[in-house]
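Why does residue order matter? Because the sequence determines the fold. Keep that principle in mind as you read this record.
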Amino acid sequence: MAGIYVHIPFCKQACHYCNFHFSTSMKLKNGFLEALLNEIGLQKHFLADEIVETIYFGGGTPSLLSGTELSLILDAIKRNFLVDVNAEITLEANPDNITAGNLSVWKDNNINRLSIGIQSFFDADLRWMNRGHHATQAEESILMAKEAGFDNLTIDLIFGTPGLSDKDWYSTVQKAILLNIPHLSCYALTVEPKTALDRMIHQKTIDGINADDQARQFLLLIEWLTVAGYEHYEISNYSLPGRRSRHNSSYWKGKKYLGLGPSAHSFNGISRQWNISNNALYIQSLQKNTIPFEIEFLTPVQKLNEWIMTSLRTKEGLGFNNEADLLNKRVIDSLKKKSKIYQQQYLVTQTSSGLMLTDQGKLFADRIASGLFFEDSEISEDAFAPSL
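Structure:
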């Protein structure tokens, strides 16, 4: 099984915090679509006849696509890949793009999951982020989607913004719970280089991020959603029972995926590659039937470290029960030894099945993962199971 990600690099306006690749100019949209359709055909062998179980339209703002454009892309994917009849097909949508007409068009195109960029249910937060919708639209968009028959919904929420009180954060989370949204992706605000947010903080026109506030609101979020019956199955993701994201879960399980469009990343188990983050150069290259990407072939140690990083983020954790497939005893013993310092700090717990982050440990997931990583010089290739 495998997944396909399609990056749509256009937005109506730029959110202050966003560092994803996009353009607020639509003048290259037609050229992009032609290039994307060409790339789909050129990449038809990338997944080596794996069955595609998820298709994800991300961005940017994929909800800016017309019904005809969506149809062209999906038809091309289905012509060139083996797509499961029950594939999860997700479209990221902004609340201000959710109308009765668009919902009908998405249904007609077999979109069966919507990821709605709510971010907050408070107008002050949305203005601060420079979002294109207001709080009333946020709630209305969810209700409209449900009325149109979209029961498989996820929304994005952001916490830890300057000025966000615990009371308002609680209100936002409770509204999501009361709306019975089956899946939530909740992120701490990060200050990415070269974003408007980064510039404003450096110019001291707005307050910076308070790490203590973010940590507290993260732990409160876990508590509130756990009480409401949500499963915290990955650091930023929460779902009602049986409603995990199939597409995102495939990343953490190390499944193959193909990324299409400028800046999109791909992984086939052997190498990782990423397309150029420039719309004009992407179009020009594909006009010559060349996909503009860079590639990195992964060593056994890099594959091991990748597994450590992604597995540790999940509810199941770093499992030792897959020793026959991935690890041998020396590697497992080394991981147990490396993790002792984090266990003493109550950031990691060890069970008979593996290593898992505590709630407090989830605040330091990247640091802990890097502390468990192996160096090429640290372990010889014959220490790995044959599958590596």
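The mean pLDDT is 92.
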